Amino acid sequence: MGCNMPLSSPLNSLCPLDASSSRMPGICSTSGRMVANTQAPSSARRGRHTICQASKAEALSYRTAGVDIDAGNELVRRIQKMNPSIGGFSGMVPFGDSFLVAGTDGVGTKLKLAFDLQKHDTIGIDLVAMSVNDIITSGAKPLFFLDYFATGKLDVDVAEAVVRGIVEGCRQSDCILLGGETAEMPGFYQGGEYDVAGFAVGAVKQEAVIDGSRIQEGDALIGFASSGVHSNGFSLVRKILEVSRTRLEDEVSWGTGTFGDALLAPTQIYVKRLLSLIDRVDVKGVVHITGGGFPENIPRIVPKGKDLGFQIQRSAWSVPPLFQWLQQAGNVEESEMFRTFNMGVGMLVVIDKSSVHEALSFDPEAFLLGEIVSGRGVQLV
User: Fold this and answer.
1) Are 326 and 253 in contact (CB under 8 A)?
2) For 327-367, how does the pLDDT look when each residue is reduced to its tens digit (9 = 90+)?
3) Coil, strand, or helix at residue 363?
4) Residue 120 burial (CB < 10 Å; 0-12/13-18/19+)?
5) Among residues 294, 322, 330, 304, which one has the least CA distance to residue 221?
6) DSSP secondary structure string, 45-98?
7) Quick one: what percent of the chain has pLDDT higher than 70?
8) Mean pLDDT by 10 residues, the chain (381 residues)
9) Residues 185-203: pLDDT tens digits?
10) Could you tell me the pTM of the whole model?
11) What is the pLDDT of residue 37?
12) What are the CA-CA distances from residue 292 to residues 10, 83, 229, 338, 339 (Å)?
């Protein structure tokens, strides 16, 4: 029997803009320190399920789960010394009157859940989504996709299921699966395990590139809901499942289905919606909220030298129950949640405030998230 946490009211956080810090600002309190959430009771009962929570001494974070975001940032800084052009969501190279835009990514330890549940048909969708959602941040239309599948011993049925998902992801992205590589490497992977990587290439006219250079104070932030955890933060997810003694087969307490169903929900692909929006309104910036959550991803679209920040209204959306459960079951600080997960917002776009009505009328599922303000960093109000 797993341990299901009761769901609290939507999370709240108040953070000032940090205009003085040279480091990437985080989600902060008015004193500049990280905000810890109010802890829920350590145990209770809900329906058929025993409800339990990590003790305060066992508060979990991405770092305690084995992932060091700061180390990743340090690696990026070192690579930038060798190649100063990196750091965006994708890379661009001139090609005639256009830019070819490329991105690469994987699915991370979400694969571990697929192994446990023996469900592999949606992993390919995740793989495509992670790369195409990155390249559309520059306004590029995906053209083709390549994949890499590596395993210790090839299971044809499993590999076929993964590729079937890749094909579906390409269909949703309106691009083609151009090719790929299957590597069978005995002794390198545990039995029944594999790893995947994806590579997407798209194109955008040079005059239509979205690079954040025209973002200014007063611009509006439009949010697009995520379909779940997407493909980041699963090392922490798995640790929370472990300490809360929750099984993937256990039913969730806030609706129908199991934890496995909720966590393996494929990553939302935003390509068609975003490209359609770009055709209708002037989009100045696009953020794909992945690893690093709000504070690590959102400021990336502001060009160096611009003193601009992001004021986000917490009342603009409700944090989905899955994230509320993860926070409570793992005793995770709210600042850590926003630095690890998308918290229900998978994509963010910056437009002129005069275009808000048109944007929301065109895409009723989008929502006004906040605005651009002076200062730096991400402020939740």
Assistant:
1) no
2) 999 999 999 999 999 999 999 999 999 999 999 999 989 99
3) coil
4) buried
5) 294
6) EETTEEEE---GGG---TTTTT--HHHHHHHHHHHHHH-TT--SSSEEEEETTE
7) 81
8) 42 36 33 32 36 57 71 75 66 94 96 98 98 97 98 98 99 98 96 97 97 96 97 95 96 95 98 96 97 92 91 95 96 94 97 97 94 94 91
9) 999 999 999 999 999 999 9
10) 0.80
11) 35
12) 21, 22, 13, 8, 5
pLDDT in tens, 31-55: 332 333 333 333 333 333 444 555 5
Q: Are 341 and 277 in contact (CB under 8 A)?
A: no
DSSP notation for 227-293:
SSSTTS-HHHHHHHHHHTT--TTSBPSSSSSBHHHHHHPPPPP-HHHHHHHHHHS-EEEEEE--TTH
Alpha carbon distances (Å) from 327 to 123, 154, 201, 304: 25, 37, 36, 34
For 7-54, the DSSP string reads P-SPP-------SS-SSPP-SB-TTSSBPPPPPPPSEEEETTEEEE--
Pair of tokens at residue 85? 């052009």
Residues in the chain: 381
H or E element in which residue 372 lies: strand 367-374
Q: Give me the sheet containing 308-312, strands edge to edge.
A: 283-288, 345-351, 220-225, 367-374, 308-312, 377-380
Encoded tokens for 204? 């955008």
Please check whether residue 155 is in contact with residue 189, taking contact to mean a CB–CB distance below 8 angstroms.
no
- Residue 30, Cβ density class (10 Å: 0-12 exposed, 13-18 middle, ≥19 buried): exposed
- pLDDT for the residue numbered 67: 72
CA distances to 54, 87, 99, 306, 374 from 92, in Å: 45, 12, 6, 22, 29
Number of other residues whose CB lies within 10 A of the CB of residue 352: 17
Q: Which residue bears the tokens 């005995």?
A: 186
Contact 161, 120 (CB under 8 A): yes
Q: How far, in Å, CA of 51 to CA of 41, rounded?
A: 10
Could you tell me whether strands 283-288 and 367-374 are parallel, antiparallel, or unpaired per DSSP bridges? unpaired
Amino acid present at 133: N
